């Protein structure tokens, strides 16, 4: 096991190096950059000269977009990373690592609750749909989940805001806390602030859950149907085992094996934020910050954020492979 983990970590280093090269080249090939965005209006009005803009680009290392210039820029970025520095964000004017560390926990809280609810709702629905194949229940669940899969995030979020925030007034339509509220530095004040945050996060979490349960439900249903048609399930039923024991003790345990692959994507999704959801609901999570940084060509933050997700993806993939050996004893990772 240890030998396998070390081997995977060494391979992961090569993968991350390749990802970083590709990301840096793509970011440098963007049609605009932070300096152009920042001084566009001043350049048009004549309050700043093109020579000054070029000087700023040279200062930030964005003046040469030739092949050698990009290679030189990547070398400087990689040198900083090897020294433990992700650079300083142009837009947020803080170290990239500090911006990520300060804002990812809001996104993590939303994603964690949404993921837990997703599994609690989707897996039982998938099992129920598989055990009642071609029934009214199966068709109803399938139609509802397909609607959830098909709806774009911004469309569903706009409908939810219109109904529950604007028309009914049950929940706030944006933000994380009420901007007009003040909370004393006491335990009661902390509880009041926490309640306000939960109240603000109900709609974003609702949208995230509705959009995510469909895929997991269909995945569970498909795997469950395959397992239910296996010979050992028919044997278990022939021995007189109850249907509940057949489904949840024998069938569902084997359904977990392909479901483990989902773990590879859970880790980056927990910490990476939800760009569109956070943007629509005005939540300053890491996803929204990354989206705004990308629009303005904030190269250090875009690189740091995407490499952060790449590392989480590699770790998630490794954990997924290790989980295979736990849920399926036939998998031997020592070879």
If you had to describe this structure to a student in words, what would you say it looks like?
- Helices cover 76% and strands 0% of the residues.
- The chain is globular and about 85 Å long.
- With 335 residues, it is mainly α.
The radius of gyration is 25 Å
Topology as a string of helices (H) and strands (E): HHHHHHHHHHHHHH
- CATH topology of the largest domain, anyone? MetI-like fold
Q: What can be said about the biggest beta sheet?
A: none
Average pLDDT number = 82
Tally of extended strands? Answer: 0
Domain unit count:
2
Shape: globular
CATH homologous superfamily classification of the largest domain:
MetI-like
Q: Which residue ranges are poorly predicted, with pLDDT under 50 across at least 5 consecutive positions?
A: none
Helices and strands: which structural class? mainly alpha
CATH architecture of the largest domain: Orthogonal Bundle
Distance between the termini: 9 Å
- Helical stretch tally: 14
Level-1 CATH class name of the largest domain: Mainly Alpha
Structure, briefly:
The protein is mainly alpha-helical. The chain has helices at residues 2-28, 34-45, 50-60, 67-82, 96-131, 136-150, 153-167, 187-228, 231-238, 243-259, 263-272, 275-280, 286-295, 299-327. The chain has 2 domains: 2-82, no CATH class; 98-159 and 213-327, MetI-like fold.
List the helices and strands and how they pair.
Blueprint: H1 2-28, H2 34-45, H3 50-60, H4 67-82, H5 96-131, H6 136-150, H7 153-167, H8 187-228, H9 231-238, H10 243-259, H11 263-272, H12 275-280, H13 286-295, H14 299-327
Helix pairs in contact: 1-14, 2-3, 5-6, 5-8, 5-11, 6-8, 7-8, 8-10, 11-14
């Amino acid at each position: 096991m240890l030998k396998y983990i070390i081997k995977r970590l060494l391979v992961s280093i090569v993968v991350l190096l390749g990802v970083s090269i590709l990301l840096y080249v793509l970011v440098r090939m963007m049609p605009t950059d932070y300096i152009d965005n920042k001084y566009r209006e001043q350049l048009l009005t004549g309050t700043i000269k093109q020579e000054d803009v070029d000087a700023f680009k040279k200062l930030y290392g964005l003046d040469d977009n030739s092949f050698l210039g990009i290679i030189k820029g990547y070398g400087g970025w990689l040198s900083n990373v090897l020294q433990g520095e992700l650079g300083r964000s142009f837009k947020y004017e803080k170290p990239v690592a500090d911006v990520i560390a300060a804002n990812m926990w809001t996104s993590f809280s939303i994603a964690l609750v949404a993921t837990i609810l997703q599994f609690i709702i989707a897996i039982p629905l998938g099992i129920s749909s598989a055990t009642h194949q071609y029934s009214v229940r199966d068709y109803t669940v399938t139609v509802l989940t397909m609607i959830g899969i098909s709806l774009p995030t911004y469309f569903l979020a706009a409908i939810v805001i219109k109904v529950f925030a604007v028309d009914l007034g049950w929940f706030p339509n944006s933000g994380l806390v009420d901007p007009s509220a003040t909370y004393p530095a006491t335990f009661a004040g902390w509880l009041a602030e926490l309640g306000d945050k939960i109240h603000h996060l109900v709609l974003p979490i609702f949208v995230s859950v509705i959009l995510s349960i469909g895929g997991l439900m269909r995945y569970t249903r498909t795997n469950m149907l395959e397992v239910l048609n296996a010979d050992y399930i028919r044997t278990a039923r022939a021995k007189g085992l109850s249907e509940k024991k057949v489904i949840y003790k024998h069938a569902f345990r084997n359904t977990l094996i392909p479901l483990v692959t989902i773990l590879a994507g859970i880790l980056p999704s927990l910490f990476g934020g939800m760009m569109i959801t956070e943007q629509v609901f005005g939540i300053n999570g890491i996803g929204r910050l990354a989206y705004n940084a990308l629009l303005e060509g904030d190269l250090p933050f875009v690189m740091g954020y995407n490499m952060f997700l790449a590392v989480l993806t590699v770790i998630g993939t490794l954990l997924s492979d290790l989980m295979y050996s736990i849920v399926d004893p036939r998998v031997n990772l020592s070879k």
